Amino acid sequence: MHPMLFATLVALAKIVLILFMFIMAIATLLTWAERKQSAVLQDRIGANRADFMGFRLWGLLNIAADGIKSFTKEDWVPPTGNPIIHNLAPFIGLFGAMVSFAVIPFGPPLQLFGQTFTLQLVDLNIGLLYILAFGSMGIYSVVLAGWSSNNKFAQLGALRGICQMISYEVVLGLSLIGVILVTGSVRLPEIIAYQGQYWLGGWIPKWGIFTQPLAFLLFLPAAIAETKRVPFDVPEGESEIIGYFVEYSGLKFGLFLLGEFIEIVVLAAFISVLFFGGWQVPWLTDAGFQFGSALSIPLSEWLVATLRILGFIAKVIFFCMLQLQIRWTLPRFRFDHLLRLGWKEMMPLALLNVFITAIVMYVLS
């Protein structure tokens, strides 16, 4: 087979596996998980009415019912709005969320047919900056949706969204500088490789949560604020202004919701890579489990790779569920409180973390 054709087929296989069988599958299941989790917290059953030949499958068929409903509803466009930008806005946010996952490695490199395959769509030497850049495309989706609707409530929601996302992007970037200083790289495979080292005779992994605990505590709320979900859902407060997609319906409204759940998956994967070792499993080396210097359990190469991939998936699912739990537990911030938290409380702490980390790294070097 021609090398170029082989590389193209490998790239297409990665796109199908990562973007559609992983991201889209988890994002779609999260719509069901959020309903069920909210039902548990509110002491009710949750979505379970859709069925096929009498089988309800714990409410999973509601996912298909929602999709059919979105496709069959009227595609409303405001007569006084801009139809081209109005139709384009939801796709911009969805595109930015999906392509952000391209640089995230979800497993170690694999040896197959005498070649090395990376479990990553593309390995960029600026992977961390790439995610921040494309993740910020959600701002354009928000402002275009609000402006093109020609609705004062949509425009007010867009203005709130712009203020919130720009404010917390500053904290988001500053919190990651400490991680860059510690690992010495913005390339995600190298950040994961650094977290494969250990302290205390091989018992404590050098995960970001241990080397940069303050950065993690700042990054998590700032990243959730970027997704505009409760308790940071000020741009789309249902009891106040509805938000920038007040004039959207049907499939385009569903694309906004799908993009939101994809952002949850990307955020969970990003947290796993930066602060929890990515696909690294504690005490699992290339040869098998190694507990200090006293005990080792040899494993085959493929079993080690499988455990690492499953470990990464487990971390992603855990942080997805954590975000759903936060969404159904905490109340919404008031807008002035939201901005004060970002600029006056979190940003000084982020700057302090950068300052302390720089001093420590200088002393250790």
List keywords for this structure.
365 residues; mainly alpha; three-stranded antiparallel sheet; two-stranded antiparallel sheet; 12 helices; 7 strands; 5% strand; globular
Overview of the structural elements:
The chain is mainly alpha-helical and 365 residues long. The protein has one domain. The strands form three sheets. It has a three-stranded antiparallel beta sheet. The model has no long low-confidence stretch (mean pLDDT 90).
Order of helices and strands: HHHEEHHHHEEHHHEEEHH
Q: Estimate percent helicity.
A: 55-70%
Widest sheet: strand ordering: 5-6-7
Q: What is the CA-atom radius of gyration, in angstroms?
A: 22 Å
User: Which word captures the global form?
Assistant: globular
Total of helices: 12
Summarize the structure.
It contains twelve helices and seven strands.
Helices and strands in order:
Elements (H helix, E strand, L loop, with lengths): L2 H39 L19 H12 L10 H17 L10 E3 L2 E3 L9 H9 L2 H11 L3 H32 L4 H7 L3 E2 L4 E2 L2 H4 L1 H15 L22 H26 L8 E2 L2 E4 L3 E4 L2 H27 L7 H30 L1
Antiparallel strand pairs: 1-2, 3-4, 5-6, 6-7
Helix pairs in contact: 1-10, 1-11, 2-10, 3-5, 3-10, 5-6, 6-9, 6-12, 9-10, 9-12, 10-11
